[in-house]
Amino acid sequence: MKEFLMPSLGADMEAGTLVEWKKKPGDQLKPGDIIAEVETQKGLIEIEVFEAAILENYLIEEGDKVPVGAPMAKLRSESIPGKIPEKDSETHPIQEEEQATESEGPVPSDSISEETSSKEKPSEEKHRIKASPLARSIAEKHNVDLNNLKGTGEGGAIIKADVEQAMAGQKEAPKQTPETGALKDVMKKKTEPETASKQVIKSRTSTSKPGQQESIRAAVAAAMSRSNQDIPHYYLEKKIDMLAALNWIKETNRQREISERLLPAVLFIKAVAKALDSAPALNAVWDNGLQFKNEVNIGFVISLRAGGLLVPAIRNADTKSVDEIMAALNDMIPRARALKLRSSELSDSTITITSLGENGADKVFGVIYPPQVAIIGFGSITDQPLVHEGMLAIRPVLQVTLAGDHRATDGLTGSRFLQALNNHLQNPEKL
Amino acid sequence: MSDIKITYREALKAGIRDALLKEERVFLMGEDVGRYGGAFAVSKGLLKEFGADRIMDVPLSEAGFVGAGIGAALAGVKPIVEVMTVNFALLPMDQIVNNAATLLHMSGGQINVPLVIRISAGIGKQLAAQHSHSWEPLFAHIPGLIVVSVGTHEDARGMLHTALEHPDPVIIFEYTSMLNLEAEIPADAGPTNISKAKIRREGKDISIITYGIGVYKALEAANRLSEQGIDAEVIDLRVLRPLDEESFIRSVTKTHRALLVEEAWNTINISSEVSARIMEKAFYELDAPVKRLGGIEVPIPYPLHLENASVPQVEDIENAVIKILRP
Amino acid sequence: METKDKLSPEKAEKLLYQLLLMRKFEEKSAELYTREKIRGFLHLYTGEEAVATGVIQALKPEDNVLGTYREHAHALARDVDAGAIMAEMYGKQEGCSRGRGGSMHIFDKEKNFFGGSAIVGGHLPIATGMALASKKLKKDNITLCFFGEGAAAEGIFHEALNLASLWKVPVLFVCENNLYAMGTALRFSHAVQEIEKKGQAYGIESKAVDGMDLLKVMAAANKAVEQVRNSGEPYLLVCNTYRFRAHSMFDAELYREKSEVEEWKKRDPIPKFRKYLLKENLISETQLQEMEEKLETEIQKAVEFAEAGTWEAKEELTKFVYSENPGS
């Protein structure tokens, strides 16, 4: 006895509905006979028999829908009744499989444990440290705790350099945590000095003072480190006879109220602004190449009493009169010392002047404030022997230095600038 | 041996001429390759030298003549089939994908198709949306094809030779906008490899992984970057299928950063695949996320400034590198 | 008719055997399909046997043959081993395509049998190209390419015919017009229903023949093959035929009337040829009896061969994507 199974007529046929039996029990079947009509998703299909047999009895009724491989009818071999039933077991594996899938239904305890684990996840997320895969693996190898690091990578991610810095710190000083902390601050700001100085201003309104000073120190550290690392500096120096300039200031101030009196620094600023006409490449920034700036915004270094520096800009110094520049300085210096500058004032400079003023060092060799390409250093004015009109004389002498970015300009440009600066300072009345 | 100055076009032609001289069974067939001299003058003069049997002009039946090329190749001759531009390459795509790429497999290894198809590609010259396609990724998607990209003069001169020796179908992408570009190659420059990527510039800070038009652009960007103290490595993938994964994984393992550059639209392009492989094979070597500079997802517009803005330029590569290295 | 006159008893027996082998082999295939031994698509040729038999008998062994996806009969006519075909349909590595192709991709390079192509019309330009190679290599073999009338609606059909005519290459295109492209009747897909006219439009000599009559097909094929071989130019032979079975196994045949099928079955080429052989005394009842047994044995052996076949190791999955040892 064997079974007639629901045939498979295509990989996409899963089941068929018996519409009509075309043969009755007891009928003699021969190959090619149509035994039944079955409805499939493609329509009504006639089901054929491939062997000679006698239809014993139906196992399903018209209207029943059964899967492919399911027995539809019992057939009796027309020949030897005792023959071993062929492939009788063939349907069993399928049934077993189906049972197996059924028993795999969700068990309540499973879903509970899943919930618990999903609750734990957010708290894990909170502690997730953003670090590059490379940084993470180096840190793991050298037992560096990523919790103590601040990243300098994209979005503050800890990168290889951060971990290596921390490792270097560990070696130098065994008491690692504070060292590493300081280091990482510098590292962070090293790559973003502008952001750092902006942060200073922002934090003024919201946080306490001690932090601000630290931040300024850190910002300076970062900018200067980056400058030293990235900018190939060249230095030029020129002695300038200041007699004419000082006399002119004295004359001018004599006729003025104390509050309106001029400082030599005003002349420096104005003279630098005008001298840039003959060396415009110094009034520029280096940002993927030299980019000239149209405005001449002169950054003026103001030392803070508690240490650190701020460099607010005198905007459009080339078009301002000396009086206007003086007014700008009078407005800016006290605000700077009170940490009340606007962030734009700190980020607009196109070139920087540093002046140590009276009682300072004779010369100052500046460190360029990136992305600018030059800084002019004014030492203190001292009486020095000087050859003037063929005679040796004691004159007030100013030692001016120029530090230039060698990627952007060469010594010739710098030299031309210093010569022009000298000429302007010899003719203060024209400034 | 001294170097000679040669245009990309001349290098391509020299490669074809060599192949024709070397073997009688080799012939070139394509639209306007003969009497017209080649749509881009690459095959100019070859008809006169080799005759119409070996420089065959064909009608505008891309599917037909590429299919015929497949038949000819599996029956013992060696056709170099030229599809004038990639923009017409969807017409024979069925032949390439369903026949050239499958016959070896469907026949259980009995029937190989030693066919070479040359396709002009690349964006440039303000040809607008229908003539500005970068479909290397479509072809590189297909197992059974070898897909190579001619990013340098050296390869323009030497890739065809190696492709013709390959027993399986090789699709060669050449770039129209580079045809007039001059460069120096050794006077005796010969066959070049079509199974390995090539480092075109060594560097330690970042791997710029690219192909085709991207190669010279990346090299120029790398030169500019070096002035800013950034040392970029430039990898020319050369073979887009099967990818020479080993080469770029080794490079990323050295530099720990990767920028992937190509003209094809970003969604599912070669860089998508390279990026995925880097993630799979070199995740723990990465010190920054892998970045891609691909085509902007727009049918390429006609105006020059918009066309230029649609695909990565040297400045874009330069800026992207700086952004990765100095975030 | 000339073929009738030439038909030797030996050849007559061989042809009848081939027709019956195709018929019975495919009936067995259908059964094995319903038992899930054969999977994928299975397209049966039942009713069309005179076409493959009649055309392929005209070829020499060195000629190339390209079939459609309804190509079991093409392969059998080309003497591809029935066991290797059956094993291929089982997906076993002893199959003629190592099991990688299945029913629609029967290949046998030794027999110059180039598939087994399942993109309608996609193999036509390949045939043109193979004939082009013969011309370039100055070989005197020809290429035979079967396709259905459905393919004549594809653009590639027109490109392939035009190129073959333009290049003057030795290719014989044989259209098996069974009136239905899957379920769409010829009259619903072609404005001009005489496919031979489409060949004529390209300057190709084209003839139509009754594909239900083996003797007529043989006569037309002999003439066509001779002409292609002598002229080196293409030829289009349209064999008008009919498939008795569904397009593929899973087809409810909603698109045609049963009466139409019954009508065509009256023209079944096999009983017709058998009757002719008996009438002409080219075969005896005893021989027919023996032939039945021989057929049973051959088919039984083919099935046993397939059953005994082995599955390729999963580790070899990525074989045959590229040639091994591609050299440089």
What does this 3D model show about the protein?
The complex is a heterotrimer of chains A (431), B (327) and C (328). Chain A is α+β, with helices and mostly antiparallel strands. Chain A has helices at residues 92-103, 108-126, 133-141, 160-172, 176-191, 193-206, 209-230, 243-254, 264-275, 322-337, 343-347, 411-426, and strands at residues 2-5, 15-21, 28-29, 34-40, 43-48, 53-58, 65-67, 71-77, 233-241, 284-286, 290-292, 298-300, 302-303, 309-310, 313-314, 351-355, 374-378, 382-388, 391-405. Chain A folds into 3 domains: 2-107, Beta Barrel (OB fold (Dihydrolipoamide Acetyltransferase, E2P)); 133-205, no CATH class; 212-430, Chloramphenicol Acetyltransferase. Chain A has 12 helices and 19 strands. In chain A, strands 9, 12, 15, 16, 17, 18 and 19 form a 7-stranded mixed β-sheet that branches. Chain A has a 4-stranded antiparallel β-sheet with strand order 1-8-6-3, with no helix packed on it. In chain A, helix 6 (193-206) runs antiparallel to helix 7 and helix 9 (264-275) packs across helix 12 (411-426). Chain B folds into 2 domains: 3-186, Thiamin diphosphate (ThDP)-binding fold, Pyr/PP domains (Rossmann fold), CATH 3.40.50.970; 198-325, 3-Layer(aba) Sandwich (Rossmann fold). Chain B is 37% helix and 21% strand. Chain B is built from 12 helices and 14 strands. Chain B is globular, with a radius of gyration of 19 Å. Chain C is α/β, with parallel strands linked by helices. Chain C has helices at residues 2-6, 9-34, 49-56, 72-77, 82-90, 124-136, 155-167, 186-189, 195-200, 214-231, 258-265, 269-279, 285-308, and strands spanning 64-67, 107-108, 113-116, 143-148, 171-177, 180-181, 184-185, 205-210, 235-240. The longest helix of chain C is centred in the first third of the chain and has 26 residues, at 9-34. Chains in contact: A-B, A-C, B-C.
